[in-house]
Write a structure and sequence with these properties.
binds pyridoxal-5'-phosphate; 18 strands; 29% strand; 8 helices; D-amino Acid Aminotransferase, Chain A, domain 2
Length: 353
């Protein structure tokens, strides 16, 4: 299928790179493709970025049948545009689509679409340290119908946003609240899918944690309320006695690509990574015994985010004196340098545009 292109005739003024925050500015173009039952995906196109006109009864507004992804493009010093592990995002989106009864998208066409829209807006890729072009593919159910069933029509869109560091403070240890009232996901649910409903359901916990002075929540499992799951929209790692623990992928947590990248790098540095269930009580015990050396969260947006404080049942524990740990810093530096082309890509993670 050929991707048609309609260029904007009123390009926007690009934002100043030094003042970029996360997710506020969007580029001049977007990718759109439609789906109709019986016809499949059709009419892939790049059009000027702009608002959509949708019937108020459009299904996605009512029952949330949608999925999304997040990845980044970087411009290397020699001008090459680099995508980081895009095929993993594409595969994961089709896994989410399967869970939400959304038809699969051809993976080669999807990659071609990402490359094409990034290429057209390549002047929007910022180059200052810590910046990148965030790519947000998403699919929405578009039948104008308010009954609960899978839609028979869908739209895939890919929008682009030049971004600075996720946290205004940069790579600063965060204060995390261990959530003991609300849960994010349960076995058999949609925890492993990137779908809007999971995030809508998490807002209440986030708002209450903010009120208490924390920047994010650490989710515990939804049944026993003791196993460590993830931190906000990122995966959680704990370094204990030289070994690194993270929750296994058993359906309730999102299988982060930065999680997988971190595991691969840690193993390549000879550090043992243990993907087995562990509890908040284990973490507290490790802390008391002086074995908890570092904790950090991983995700595309912030890459690595060290955890400085964990609040649990009215008690705040301090991790690594609230300083950035060695492993956190090394992972952050290595991943961002592979992404921006300063470090050799020995794992074959980069796809050039
Ligand atoms: C996106 C996401 C992550 C991180 O995934 P990456 O592929 O590393 O960006 C982790 N947890 C949740 C809930 C997420 O939505």
């Amino acid at each position: 299928m050929e991707i048609t292109v309609t260029r904007t005739n009123s390009p926007k003024v690009k934002p100043d790179e030094s003042s970029l925050v996360f997710g506020h500015e969007f580029t001049d173009h977007m990718f759109v493709m439609d789906y109709k039952e019986g016809q499949g995906w059709y009419d892939p196109r790049i059009v000027p970025y702009g608002p959509l006109t949708l019937d108020p009864s459009t299904m996605v507004f009512h029952y949330g049948q949608e999925t999304f992804e997040g990845l980044k493009a970087y411009k290397a010093e020699d001008g090459t545009i680099q995508l980081f592990r895009p095929k993993d995002n594409i595969r994961r989106m089709n896994q989410s689509n399967d869970r939400l009864c959304i038809p699969a998208i051809d993976e080669d066409l999807f990659l071609e679409a990402i490359k094409a829209v990034v290429k057209i807006d390549e002047d929007w890729i910022p180059t200052s340290p810590g910046t990148s072009l965030y790519i947000r593919p998403f699919v929405i159910a578009t039948d104008p119908f308010i009954g609960v069933k899978p839609s028979s029509t869908y739209m895939l869109m890919i929008i682009l946003s030049p971004v600075g560091s996720y946290y205004k403070e940069g790579l600063n240890p965060t204060k995390i609240y261990v959530e003991d009232e609300y849960v994010r996901a349960v076995p058999g649910g949609t925890g492993y899918a990137k779908t809007g409903a999971n995030y809508a359901a998490s807002l209440k916990a986030q708002v209450e944690a903010h009120k208490k002075g924390y920047s994010q929540v650490l989710w515990l499992d939804g049944i026993e309320r003791k196993y460590i799951e993830e931190v906000g929209t990122s995966n959680a790692f704990f370094k204990v006695d030289g070994k690194v623990h993270t929750a296994p992928l058993q359906g309730s947590i999102l299988g982060g690509i930065t999680r997988d990248t971190s595991i691969e790098l840690l193993k390549s540095w000879g550090i043992e990574v243990i993907e087995e269930p562990f509890t908040i009580d284990d973490v507290m015990r490790w802390h008391q015994e002086g074995k908890l050396e570092e904790a950090f969260a991983t995700g595309t947006a912030a890459v690595i985010s060290p955890i400085g404080i964990l609040g649990w049942k009215g008690n705040d524990i301090q991790i690594n004196n609230q300083e950035i740990g060695k492993i956190s810093q090394k992972l952050y530096d290595t991943i961002t340098e592979i992404q921006n082309g300063k470090e050799k890509d020995t794992f074959d993670w980069i796809v050039r545009v």
